[in-house]
Amino acid sequence: MEARVVRAVQKRQVVFLCVFLGMSLAGAEPLRYFVAEETERGTFLTNLAEDLGLGVGELRARGTRIVSDQNLPFLLLSPLTGDLLLNEKLDREELCGPREPCVLPFQLLLEKPFQIFHAELWVRDINDHSPVFLDREISLKILENTTPGAAFLLESAQDSDVGTNSLSNYTISPNAYFHINVHDSGEGNIYPELVLNQVLDREEIPEFSLTLTALDGGSPPRSGTALVRILVLDINDNAPDFLRSLYKVQVPENSPVGSMVVSLSARDLDTGSNGEISYAFSYATEIILKTFQINPTSGNLHLKAKLDYEAIQTYTLTIQAKDGGGLSGKCTVVVEVTDINDNRPELLRSSLTSPIAENSSETVVAVFRIRDRDSGNNGKTACSIQDDLPFILKPSIENFYTLVTEKPLDRERNTEYDITITVTDLGTPRMKTEYNITVQVSDVNDNAPAFTQTFYTLFVRENNSPALHIGSVSAMQPQDPHLPLASLVSINADNGHLFALWSLDYEALQAFEFRVGAADHGSPALSSEALVRVLVLDANDNSPFVLYPLQNGSAPCTKLVPRAAEPGYLVTKMVAVDGDSGQNAWLSYQLLKATEPGLFGVWAHNGEVRTAGLLSERDAVKHRLVVLVRDHGEPPRSATATLHVLLVDGFSQPFLPLPEATPAQAQTESLTVYLVVALASVSSLFLLSLLLFVAVRLCRRSRAASVGRCLVPQGPFPGYLVDVSGTETPSQSYQYEVCLAGDSGTNEFKFLKPILPNIQGQCPEPEMEENSNFRNDFGFSVQLK
């Protein structure tokens, strides 16, 4: 049937007097939404963004979620549109039983900032149950001298519906002797009484067979029937009479099965079979028949099943005493169930933030709610944590608590905290629940490197050999003492070979520069410097990472697609990134697996998932799509993402966006074009810069060749100099050494080698620093860029 959903929005605004923790709280009156039972799943109820006066993006950004005491997933909130949908068919009788109205409370929890809105879903009853008699045949014995106008209690029918759809009337098949009177029990239930119209004559009509019909008030009405067999007896002029017409008893909910509730007693002044009394329930519900049993001879009422105060607090029973002649009397028994402390407090966690950054103050670590199903003091609770922790608990409304840092944390002292939340009720005996939370502290760079000493004194004997190790200085980083000090590169002092000491990461460092100096052993020594630029080339060492839909092991990403969607309908767009660059970061998409191949397709360049053809009723409702994302590196790397698609029938036409006309698709295609243009521009600039760099280097080499060659450039530096003056004088060998002071403030390389005398015929010597007339000293430095 077609559901009618009525939305009631609270128009009056309530101004609050205080703000607790910077969180605004919802008004006292809840939002109310109405839906008929058996309404189809996926039915639109309301748009929460409009009801709360928030934008769709704001609603999603604030981490909106739905929580309820029943823990029933009967509602579904769409974070993209803010629509509140019905997540499953509701059975009012199963949810609320005879209670009317049937109200399912829930809360709308906004985390950023923390805010709660109360709401209610009112489930309306439909006429989906017919009246039913527990006994299809009712037997009565009536004395033939019964006075006209006498009434005989009949078994009432049961109808699970409520309100106007519940039981409303009884009728009996037409006859001259009996008619039906309908009475209200005062608790919303009606029961029939058979009324005698005229005096019976057993010799004329010894037995009657009449049809009793129960009608409900639905439209159209439903009905149920039972056969009433009336046996006319000889005179029995005294009916059983209870000593009391009303019995009230209180029974603890932990009473054992089989324990006696109350002892009933009725009397009959007749003798013989007309004075023998039997006890039984009269128009009892199924719940009463399952919970209680009565001894037909003694009238003792016993428990047949366990009681539960949290489920039912009061039972109303009607007991009938019938004698052997068919006359009967009745009384009412009201059983009140008393509560005991049999439920432990429950902690319902809404959110947890871990890790949290050190040095942050007043940070909300967790939001949770305390619930105890008992009542009175048994349902009141107290919440606490350990005293030696830098956290405090702050109570909020509706038994909500927030766990907040009391002062800034220090990761160097504690990297994580084990917090035990203890919840105790105030019942007798008290019951306790403990809940453990582990909070990790993330590091912040709040400690500068420090030398182990503020002043160093080194002792060196004279006439020491060159390159003697004279001492060491060391520094440490307080937040991570295990990180060693190291350099990027090293140079072989004999042949000038450079070595990378670390495994370089293109994503962290694309290029760096340093200067290398070379000096001979002449007197005075000649030296020169060269600038070395190291370009790190990218390798395909990063696999694609899927940003959307997020593959985090939680609830799967599910998309709803109407069966009326046209071919090419946009289901969703896969978004992935790659930490590499250039061709290694070019991504393509491919549909790897599908529940029904050929029903959906994935565009290779932009990751859009679209329908490949018309959908039909024969297609499965649930589809699982596995999409492969692959880069263009050598060798290529890939990743997979799983998407769940549900085909639904309940979308109305305004909610079927066409692929050609949706603004979201146009915006996505425009964004794709911008990304391609930006990628092409960056690649072009990189190639142009590389060509310019090569051209400048070639021009410098050509100018150096025109002045005159100093050194033979092929291969590694030789162990000798080439004599260009023709004197064939042996030259001195070059020595190299480079060191990088790791984590230093200046990033300098230090070179320590002898400065040798100048050799005639060499290239013009470079400018020497002042005070360079050392004899057996050496040293030169390079700057890392």
From TrEMBL:
The organism's place on the tree of life at top rank: Eukaryota
Main location: membrane
Domain Cadherin: 134-242, 243-347, 348-451, 490-546, 561-659
BP GO annotations: homophilic cell adhesion via plasma membrane adhesion molecules; nervous system development
InterPro entries from the UniProt entry: Cadherin-like_dom, Cadherin-like_sf, Cadherin_C, Cadherin_CS, Cadherin_N, Protocadherin/Cadherin-CA
UniProt keywords, alphabetically: Calcium, Cell adhesion, Cell membrane, Glycoprotein, Membrane, Metal-binding, Repeat, Signal, Transmembrane, Transmembrane helix
Bilayer topology annotation: Single-pass type I membrane protein
GO cellular component assignments: plasma membrane
Annotated transmembrane regions: 671-696
SMART domains assigned: CA (SM00112)
GO molecular function terms noted in the UniProt entry: calcium ion binding
Location in or out of the cell: Cell membrane
Protein name: Cadherin domain-containing protein
Organism of this sequence: Colobus angolensis palliatus (Peters' Angolan colobus)
